[in-house]
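Researcher: Structure for this, please.
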Amino acid sequence: MRNKKTSFLFLSTAIIMGTIGFLGYNALGTSPKDAIFIHQSLPKLDTSILSSDSDLIVRGQVKEIMDAEWNTIDKKAPIEPSGFDVVYTDVKVGVKEVIKGSSDNEIVVRVYAGKASEGVEVINDGESSFENGEEIILFLIPDRTPFNKENEHGHYRVMGGYQGKYLIEGQTGLSKQVTNQFENKNLNYLLQEIENSKYKPKQIIENIEGKL
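Model: Predicted structure, token format:
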């Protein structure tokens, strides 16, 4: 049984709107290592910032988690990897309510993490995680990261990493709660916070992830 190889990437720069970094690869060969770890230092974004700076805010349900792929042209593991070669996973979300912006009935949310078919796994501690069937509120922005090499426009990124996804829990009405990694609050309270801030001027630098 071969040893599990790992690689570590530590991204110390605080990244507000997306994932940026250089991935570690096997210095002794051309194949990526079996596991690539991305660590992010994310500043805390409150609901006011998430609401004002998101382009799209939706309430929806996870419909399908697609197979992870490489962001290379042929979607295969690179022979000679560059700093922005990475595995991504697309998540299809059925939209039940548009809270800000405009949207189709189904959208695609991209996370730069996942396990590709040849076994290489990217573990990103700043990304949101998704499960089929869960009901969620998402704060979304276009993917302006350098990982989006072809500048594709058919998907969104969660703003602030795991902070921009709230899981909706509870059975009915006033009992429904929302949670993310930092907080738990009443669903109606969150919706009111969004309403109060969603049309305020943007509070952080736009396109920051394309400039660092």
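Researcher: Any notable elements?
Model: Helices lie at 47-53, 187-197. The two ends are 41 Å apart (CA to CA).
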